[in-house]
Amino acid sequence: MAGQLSGATRAKASAPEYQGALGSLSVNASLPEVLAKGVEELRAAERAGDLAEVARCGLAVAEACRRLGRIDEADRAWKASYRAARSAGNEGAMAWALWSGGTLARQRGELRLAYRLLRLAAEAGERGGDVVVRGYSLAGLAETGRIQGDYEAVGRLHEQLLAEARRRGEARHTVWALEGIAQMHRNTGSYDKALALFEEAAETASRAEDRRGWAWALRGIADVVSVRDGDVDRALDLLSRAEEACREIRLASALAYNHKMRGNVLYRAGRYEEARELYALALEEFQGMEEPRGTALSRLGLVKSRARLGRDTARTAGELAELRTTLDRIGLRHARDMVDKAAAELGVGPLPDHGGDGHGQEEPVLPAVGAEALRAVDVEALR
């Protein structure tokens, strides 16, 4: 899967979610800058009565708020963008708003809603002739299935989207697909393949000046060299470089995942006290942005670290059982398996079953959605 960069993917990365008056913003623009500019242009568009521009500026506001962890504001912004786009009869703008809403839903752990919105977005993008939002929406569906651990269902879709991104020369989307495929290989133990793909993603992002994609790729490389090679120093150095990029652009979620990964590296090295501190930091960050997946994974790291530092076995087992129930409710099967492995590793299993089956959020990845369904969307009722 790893290969030579095409000439097209050497181009500078773009941010297609920044549109209209915000179209000149760089993919590396700091999120507070994007938010301030977005609000300014949104108000101007509202005064001018330009609904299409209201939708475009509202999308940037929604995405900046989401990435800054300002969840309630992001929710209001994408819905307002959708309403403006629908009033303007602009299906492409409707698709982008639905994509933003679906991405936010996944971030909040509302996977059933994420599937619904992203399917609607993909169909609207196809019908409106916007291949970029269609690709982003399909990618969102693939990522939702991937974080659930449904690799068989979404692996081919990741590969298809990678091929499409290469053909169109979309460096940012190429990086996303490479990282997704790499993560699946890492999670199934194919560390050499994972490392090659993460390194290709980092090189592609660097050439395209995509700081966000580069930071995520470095995090992936750090994970693999830690688990495969036990190279703690290199892993921590990579994470420090990635953290600098996250702080530069103010990527709240990426920074929290960076801190959690630093905890993972330290835990594997037997540095349990330091790991506990990093997991606690990440937990606070994830809770602040209402991100249940990151919250649960940070809690898992904390439970494991505390157990290694002498916490009572019965209490450890109870906390792991509670975590497994939480992950069942969200529908994160791979993460649920991590809890069971932790119980075995710590000698506190088998865990009691609290009735979760791990399928509460499960849905098909790409069922058809008709045009009538899109026109009938009531964004205020979606929850």
From TrEMBL:
Pfam families: TPR_12. This is Tetratricopeptide repeat protein. SUPFAM superfamilies: TPR-like. It comes from the Bacteria.
